[in-house]
Amino acid sequence: MAGILELPVVDFSSLDRASTAKLIRQACLEYGFFYLVNHGIEEGLLGRVFEGSKNLFSLPLDEKMKMQRNEGHRGYTPPFAEKLDPSLPSKGDLKESFYIGPMEGNELQWLSNQWPSEEILPYWRETMVLYYEKALLDECFFEKIGALHKPMAFLRLLHYPDSASGSIDGEFGASAHTDYGIVTLLACDGVPGLQICREKDEYPRVWRMALVVNVGDLLERWTNCLFRSTLHRVLATGLERYSIAFFLEPNSDCLVECLDSCRSEACPPRFPPVRSDDYLKERLRITYASEEHQA
Ligand SMILES: O=C(O)CCC(=O)C(=O)O
Ligand SMILES: [Fe+2]
């Protein structure tokens, strides 16, 4: 039987910043994942975001498709449109999702966020913007690595259907993947399903109060694989599930290059420098390849 994977717990309200930083470093070295408690996002707001997410995904498909994900990756993605693990035989991942990206400086229509109208979902936009800003406020936490001038950050509402459990046939809520960017902050609704590949048959604790934080691939590249971007997936358990992911990605023009402190003669850089936007575009192209085949 699957056991519980105990991840390190970081208390964001601790006044001892040096110990907190040490704990985070250790968690990133060992697991690539940790829980963040006392993170400053009020439970009431989190509750409203989950409620807004449920209301959005309960709209009829044609209403959701009016907000279909645009070229700037803002908006709605239906089930099966993406396959995080392209090696699987399945037609795609079961989840549907909704992306909200940076709010300002996007005069171009194709880069704009898409919002349900006030008549359909009153205060929806306001709630999501508030959460987005709250999650971004912690930006100075990772500022020291020097990549957070105008970061790209995406809020993504995720909905996993209650369809029959399919993971045995290669169908997953979200198939195995690593996240692309710097870090991800994940709020869960208390329903299990997330599986972290550190110990294959162990699940992280289902903990509503904590944000699950994990290292992404760009941070792994910066640190020359010292920090681990750990493989994870969401099983199709047969239970309906909602989660809210906040992906922190660097400024598009940022050159992601092995940090001096993470290289030595014995341990040279494992990756060539890459421009953040080029890297992220290529990753997204691979993830949505199954959508192109279905079209
Ligand atoms: O919903 C979850 O628990 C995980 C989602 C996830 O890993 C992702 O969207 O990258
Ligand atoms: Fe992920």
UniProtKB/TrEMBL annotation:
A Pfam family recorded for this sequence: 2OG-FeII_Oxy
Record's keyword annotation contains Glycoprotein: no
GO MF term list: dioxygenase activity; metal ion binding
InterPro entries in UniProt: DIOX_N (IPR026992), IPNS-like_FE2OG_OXY (IPR044861), IPNS-like_sf (IPR027443), Oxoglu/Fe-dep_dioxygenase_dom (IPR005123)
Alphabetic keyword roster: Iron, Metal-binding, Oxidoreductase
SUPFAM superfamilies linked: Clavaminate synthase-like
Residue ranges constituting the Fe2OG dioxygenase domain according to the UniProt record: 150-250
Highest taxon above the source species: Eukaryota
Gene3D superfamilies cross-referenced by the UniProt entry: B-lactam Antibiotic, Isopenicillin N Synthase, Chain
Keyword check for Repeat: no
Similarity comment: family membership: Belongs to the iron/ascorbate-dependent oxidoreductase family.
Name the UniProt record assigns to this protein: Fe2OG dioxygenase domain-containing protein
Organism of derivation: Spirodela intermedia
